[in-house]
Amino acid sequence: MNEAVKTGKHGLLRESALRHIRMILDRSPAGTRLPTVRRLMADLGMSQHVVQLALDQLRSENLITSHVGRGTFVGGTQDPRKQSRSVLTLLFQNPYERGDVIARLVHQGLCVNGQNSLVLTYSDTRQVMEMLNTEASFDTCVLQPRSSTVPISLLALLKQRSEHVLIEGLAAEHLDVDAVSNDPGFCVELAVLHLRERGYHNIIWVTEEGRNYFFARMNQIFAAYCEGLGDAQAGCRIVRAECDPERLGIRDLAGTLASLNLSGVDSGRTAVVIASFVDGRTILQALQKCGLKTPDDIGVLRIGSPDLEADHMGRLTTVGRPSTQAAATVLERISWRWSNPSLPWTTFYDRPILLPLRSTSSESPFFGKAQRRPGRVAKDASHPMAR
After folding, report:
1. Do 284 and 382 sit in the same domain of this protein?
2. pLDDT average, residue stretch 139-151
3. Percent of the residues in the chain that have a pLDDT greater than 90, as a whole number
């Protein structure tokens, strides 16, 4: 009896709250933010439970939409498969081709699916913030910073201008946004296992200095991986080279390779992994300048995009996620977020692939050919690498 009375009382209170909120809906355009639950409780003199019952009813009638951390708004949700959305892609300008390819593929995919897509390439953060400091709004913003530095002011503005933010190419577990990133651990595993299978005993991990999250994380994983294999002191080492801030990548790759001083190690049994934004042509030119042939003198594996010829030049074994795969994942995560607007933010790690090419070919000396005498790494005996 008491429960029935209690239920009946809540029912009357809920109806009263419904009438009050419906009056607000009648005079408010779609997209208007409703008063907070606390404010409705104060205006109605009712408990949070009763107000939530009224809001749940309106939500079931598709008259209001709630977003965790943002509030409740006038207007219901539509089927994301039928609704036309707007997406802004912000791409930081730099010479590395991969970002442009991914942005173009994402734009094409959105347009094919009937979405509205806008791509902006920027080089000055303040300028792009001034451009966005308008009343324009988007359902999703995709940010491609191409570095580990994401200006907090820009990120805050994007959150104001869009329902959802997704960062491509950077893990962002603590930024309250979605993110898509290459899997650094699997990259290291693919690279090391491939080189071990090819018979390379010595692996030198050459990377660029700086704050790039992905490269720094791979450095840590490579060190731990080699330690687990018992190679922390023998055969495996990390070399950090000066970065070119204007063009991205290692500033003087030829000089870095020359400084490795490979004399005294088994010719053909040493491999270099190049984890840098430097392109494939620059890698081949640096090897030529040092008088090194792959794989006779040294094996070379680069971390990059296996589907971009500029990265591998048809010769360099490459580990990484294809740009086509990265773009497809971005599109999938955008669609997933539209269908699950209230779920927690996530960082999705793409699994990389291995593209084996001639720079780590099985035609290396230790696969049947006569080995060269240790110490004769470069053709020119006067070269620093031959000393």
Report:
1. yes
2. 80
3. 37
CB proximity list for 25: less than 8 A, separation 6 or greater = 58, 63, 64, 74
What's the pLDDT tens digit per position in 59-75? 888 888 887 667 888 87
pLDDT for residue 376 is more than 60: no
117 found inside a domain: yes
Identity of the residue numbered 323: S
Q: What is the 3-state secondary structure (H, E, C) of 210-268?
A: CCCHHHHHHHHHHHHHHHHHCCCCCCEEEEEECECCCCCCECCHHHHHHCCCCCCCCCC
The distance from CA 41 to its chain's CA centroid, rounded to whole angstroms, is: 43
Binned at pLDDT 50, 70 and 90, residue 380 comes out as very low
Q: Indicate if 115 and 246 belong to the same structural domain.
A: no
pLDDT digits (tens, 9 = 90+) for 211-247: 678 888 999 999 988 887 665 545 688 999 998 766 6
- Tokens 């409740």 belong to 72
Radius of gyration of the chain (CA): 28
In this structure, how many other beta carbons lie within 10 angstroms of the beta carbon of residue 15?
14
β strands within the chain, DSSP E:
64-67, 71-74, 86-92, 116-122, 138-144, 162-168, 178-182, 202-208, 236-241, 270-275, 299-303, 317-320, 347-350, 353-355
Tokens of 5: 């009375």
Q: Which residues pair with 166 in a beta bridge?
A: 142, 178
Q: Which of 73-82, 139-148, 317-326 has the highest mean pLDDT?
A: 317-326
What pLDDT score does 371 carry?
Answer: 32
CATH classification at residue 98 = 3.40.50.2300
Would 366 be classed as within a structural domain? yes
* Average pLDDT in the chain: 81
User: Is the peptide bond between 95 and the residue preceding it cis, with omega within 30 degrees of 0?
Assistant: no
Range of the domain at 20: 2-74
Please, are residues 50 and 13 in contact by the beta-carbon 8 Å criterion?
Answer: yes
Give the model's confidence band at 337: pLDDT under 50 very low, under 70 low, under 90 confident, else very high: very high
Tokens of 154: 């820009």
Identify whether residues 269 and 332 lie together within a single domain: no
Secondary structure (DSSP) of 365-385: GGGTSPPPPTT--SSSTTSGG
Category of 65 on φ-ψ map: left (φ > 0), alpha (ψ -120 to 50) or beta: beta
Strands 270-275, 299-303: pairing kind: parallel
